[in-house]
Amino acid sequence: MRITNNMMINNSLANLSTNKTRMSKLDTQLATYKKISRPSDDPIIAIRALRFRTSLGDVTRYIEKNIPDAEQWMSITEAALSKANDMFTDILGYCTQGANDTFETDNRKSIANSLQELKGAIYDQGNVDYAGRYIFSGYKTESTLTFTDQKIADEKSYTITEPVNMQEVYSKTTFTNSVDPDNVAFISNSNMPEANQVNVYKLAYSGLDDMSELAISYKDASDDTEKTMAVTQVDSSDPDAYIAGDDEVKLIKDTGELVFGAKAYDSLYWAKDMSITYDKTGFNKGEIKPEHYFTCIDKTGPDDIEYIKESNGQDITYNISYSQKIKVNTEASDAFSYRIGTDIDLMSDALSQLDSIENKLAKLKRMKDDIRYKDESNQKAIDSMIEGATKEKDIQRTYVRELFDSSITKFQNHQSDLNFEISDIGTRGIRLDLVKQRLVEQQANIKDLKSENEDIDLEEAAIDYKSSNLIYNASLQSASKVVRQSLLDFL
Do 251 and 257 meet the contact criterion of CB atoms below 8 Å apart? Predict the structure, then answer.
């Protein structure tokens, strides 16, 4: 076959194009440090690159976004719980002083105020937020734990279903024939003040509304039959408020106390799922919001809002790795029991009552020296009243001492619950650190694999480029010689 001049030219140009393409590819690789510039260059490398980049993006997001957010949330939670733990230590100190009867008369009122301030400070820790989200409020992250605005609190109205734990019923000391210093009269031995022990359960709230009907709901311990027991509503101004019939249960609305008669207490002691549903309108600033602790209905607005207290909690979780989630929140009901508030109220109320009795006794002693009461009959009457008031004081001091002694165990349990939550956060934090370390290692491995798949070997690419450049220049020279020759040059 005759080889024409055009055939030689076309063949030379084809070789030039091939060499040019290869050199251009190598030039692009040197410029970008990548093996391919488009998927069609090598589909396998392209597919692997997509997979590695997706994996790297996911891991990087976990390391740089999700895990730091989880760490910050748990760090703020732990700090708030640790502060509350310090406050429990202070409360336990007061409990020990009260149990040992070392409170001075002059500072008893300030101690009662200090206990109330500590209660408010503990619940204030529940109002801590992270990035505008309240961290102890479960799914209701837009809601503070306590009422922070008195005007709004005044307008709030709820129907609250509060569980009743008979283990929390305590023996309260009340008085009959209490001395009244404004009514000077001789008190015989038979009419001296007497202490009564009544079974009382303190509800979470005081100042409750009047209701047409009120009852305790429960299940019978023997057969789980659902039953109710009627509750009589009274006010503390009623002289018989703390006197309940054997089968009777009373609710003192203004103090939020349930008073159990002897038989009623015995019959309900082993009952299950006991609760009472009551209405309350108007709250104080600093009081806990019912929706964070109880099943309740907010009736404030035009439409009722129902809240269900879920037994399994409201866990907020973050994705921290592939198919791995971690709980970041702690609910206030787990860390700051509403019984903390009621237990502190019991102690401060007992101190206030003792302070009131001591003031009454001091007033009677002043009256004894008052010229208006210097006649014999008044002196005898005041002496008997002083004797009665002294008896009240001794009884109340014993009650305060016993109450503070029992409160030591209560607040040790409250502190133990809090420490459990702190420990739980620490355990979750350790797990988070381990996942983070593993992801950092995984990120480095993916980067290595991604680089191995996509990136060129710079030294090898430079040598290949130099070689390709020499070949291309040589082919240019060869082609130029071929193109200069024509058929006429051979004739």
Answer: yes
Q: Is the confidence at residue 456, as pLDDT, over 60? A: yes
Give the list of residues 6+ apart from residue 200 with CB closer than 8 angstroms, or none.
169, 170, 171, 172, 242, 257, 258, 259, 260
Task: Measure the CA–CA gap between 114 and 94, rounded to whole angstroms.
Answer: 9
Give the list of residues 6+ apart from residue 193 with CB closer than 8 angstroms, or none. 175, 176, 177, 178, 179, 388, 389, 391, 392, 395
Q: Dig out the tokens for 367 from the structure.
A: 């009256």
Does residue 29 sit within a domain?
no
Res 434 pLDDT > 90 = yes
* Residues 144, 332 contacting (CB under 8 angstroms): no
**Residue 488 in this model has a pLDDT that exceeds 60:** no
Instruction: Give CA–CA dist 271/226, Å, rounded.
Output: 10
Asked if residue 229 is part of any domain, the answer here is yes
- Tell me how far CA of residue 367 lies from CA of 185, 188, 375, in angstroms: 13, 19, 12
Q: What's the domain count of the chain? A: 1
Residue 179 lies in a domain: yes
For residue 217, being part of any structural domain is answered with yes
174: which strand partners? 196
Partners of residue 229 on adjacent β-strands: 216
Instruction: Please name the helix (run of DSSP H) or strand (run of DSSP E) that holds residue 158, with its range, or none.
Output: strand 157-163
Alpha-carbon span 491 to 318, nearest angstrom? 87
Q: How many CB atoms lie within 10 A of CB 227?
A: 14
Around Cβ 447, how many Cβ atoms within 10 Å?
Answer: 14
Encoded amino acid at 98, one letter: G
User: Are the beta carbons of 35 and 456 closer than 8 angstroms?
Assistant: yes
> If we measure between CA atoms, which residue out of 416, 329, 340 comes closest to residue 76?
329
- Kindly report the backbone phi and psi dihedral angles of residue 195, in degrees, each rounded to the nearest multiple of 5, phi listed first: -90, 140
Its pTM stands at 0.83
